[in-house]
Amino acid sequence: MNTRLYINGEWAAAADGAEFTTSDPATGTLLASCAEAGPSDVDAAVDAARAALHDPAWAAMAPSARARLLWRVADLIEANQADLAELETRDQGQPLGVAQSVSVTGAAEHFRYFAGWVTKIEGAVSPISFPDTLHYVRREPVGVCALITPWNFPLMIASWKLAPALACGNTVIIKPAEQTPLTTVRLVELCAEAGFPPGVINLLTGGPAAGRALVEHPNVDKVSFTGSSAVGREIVKASAGNLKRVTLELGGKAPSVIARDADIDKAVAGNLQGALLNSGQVCAAYTRLYVDRRRVDEFTEKLAAAASSLRLGPGLDPETQIGPLVSLEQLERVDSLVQTGGEQGAELVTGGQRADGPLANGYFYSPTVFGGVTDDMTIAREEIFGPVLPVLAYDDPEELSVRANDTEYGLAASLWTRDLATAHRLAADIRAGAVFINMLPIPDAAAPWGGYKSSGWGREMGPYALEAYTEIKGVWVHLDTP
Fold first, then answer.
1. Which of 86, 155, 212, 479 could make a disulfide contact with 132, Cβ separation 3.0–4.6 Å?
2. pLDDT per residue over 344-378, tens digit each?
3. Is the model's pLDDT at 338 over the cut of 80?
4. Average pLDDT of span 249-258
5. What pTM, to 2 d.p., does this model score?
6. CA 47, 53, 58, 64 torsion-angle sign
7. SS (HEC) of 224-279
8. How would you class 309 by CB atoms within 10 Å of its CB: exposed for 0-12, middle for 13-18, buried for 19 or more?
9. DSSP characters for 153-186?
10. 3 near 30, Cβ under 8 Å?
11. Across the chain, which distance is largest between two alpha carbons, in Å?
12. Strand 286-292 with 388-394, pairing
């Protein structure tokens, strides 16, 4: 399989012919060769997006027509659900059921949700104090948007950026992670089939150099990035040249509080899924499990038993519950952090090693549970992005918000309790962009998504995404006759 760049409505190889490869994380075998965008490709894509921004075919398109285009993309995603899910599983590694029910379904829902917003993006009339003056507010597109997406949920995250950007009338260049470009390529093919005018949507595949060139480009007006906090900081610095608008959804170290009154069996099942969805490669994964000391032994024992019973395997195997990590690099990073946990005194209860035997060629890591973890340990502070569950005990509920907030991150948090007062009090006290009570950390197109502190800037999804992809213009009209 070979993939190309998509610039100004045309598919083509990179200008210098450069390519890179992507592989199946379940087997390590080659999946595809992809065009590697260079500086001239970046310039061409930005020029195409800039021209399309002012082309009447897009700029003057009726909102209802733009809405129909987004709705058509949603229909095409659903019509191609089986192929998209299989491609996501082969390229990223997630179990097919996750690819179907979360990735593909979520992608379609984002396009459908924002299709509904296109005809409802309104301004306002302001009651200003100047006499004989009308003041009204317009919402206008930010302009040319660079959408840079990660490797953990490539299709869905591309959709949750692309749909609102287009709904607001922007033009885009999308740059997927080099580890997992294939479903984004297919998504752009579906957008072309839906009928978007040339230059409105452009695709650049490639590594960090292509992303860096987009961020630094003087004719890019907006960057939306999902990925690590370290790269997010680099983007902030690089975007200073023309003061680009920037939205960042970055790392997380989500605390999960299991209160004394919690249903332990439900809390074990929920935290297992919340921590191990997509092999733990989720920014909002539950990765600090705070359990009442009077129940911590019971919780840890049941959690370890459940984790050790999960079936590892290729995502296309219907019996698989935990798929591979995305790459050898990520597997080695996870293993290094696990080893550090043991060296710092955490008790390894189960897991802690790379899978061998028939799975040895893939990037599989056994679900790992640590007990006796303290707040100062590396595994309780750094984002692991793998199937690792550190369990920490607490004695006084009053300490929970302080401990939960003792982190540079603030993307998500979880509470497991039967007491509404406990739930609402902690939800208010924990500094995180989303708090999930007795449920899994899966976002929805209609709800805001983003973080506090080093977990990012701004919010995506829901009506809040309209703020990220529009500028506000005030218009003043003096009503006296000259």
1. 479
2. 999 999 999 999 999 999 999 999 999 999 999 99
3. yes
4. 96
5. 0.95
6. positive
7. EEECCHHHHHHHHHHHHHCCCEEEEECCCCEEEEECCCCCHHHHHHHHHHHHHHHH
8. exposed
9. SHHHHHHHHHHHHHHTT-EEEEE--TTS-HHHHH
10. no
11. 86
12. parallel
Q: Where are the alpha helices (DSSP H) in 350-434?
A: 400-404, 420-429
Tokens found for residue 201: 């949507």
Q: Which position among 88, 249, 383, 460 bears the catalytic label?
A: 249
Q: What is the bridge-based pairing of β-strands 124-125 and 133-141?
A: antiparallel
- Pick from 229, 226, 267, 261: nearest CA to 247: 226
User: For residue 77, what are the CA distances in angstroms to 11, 103, 296?
Assistant: 20, 11, 44
Phi-psi region of 418 (alpha: psi -120 to 50; beta: other; left: phi over 0): alpha
Active site residue 249: yes
> Which tokens hold the place of 352?
């802690």
Distance CA 260, CA 427 (A): 17
Q: Tell me the per-residue pLDDT of 66-119, one tens digit each, with 9 for 90 and over.
A: 999 999 999 999 999 999 999 999 999 999 999 999 999 999 999 999 999 999
CA angle at residue 47 from 192 to 52, to 5 degrees? 50
465 CB-near residues (< 8 Å, 6+ apart): 114, 160, 164, 459
CA distances (Å), 457 to each of 46, 216, 226, 434, in order? 24, 18, 11, 14
Q: Which residues contact 198 (CB under 8 A, 6 or more apart)?
A: 8, 9, 10, 48, 52
All structural domains of the chain, each given as residue ranges with its CATH number in brackets, are 2-250+451-475 (3.40.605.10), 254-437 (3.40.309.10)
Residue with tokens 């990012």: 456
Report the alpha-carbon distance of residue 29 to residue 97 in Å, rounded.
Answer: 22
Residue 46 CB-half CA count within 13 A: 21
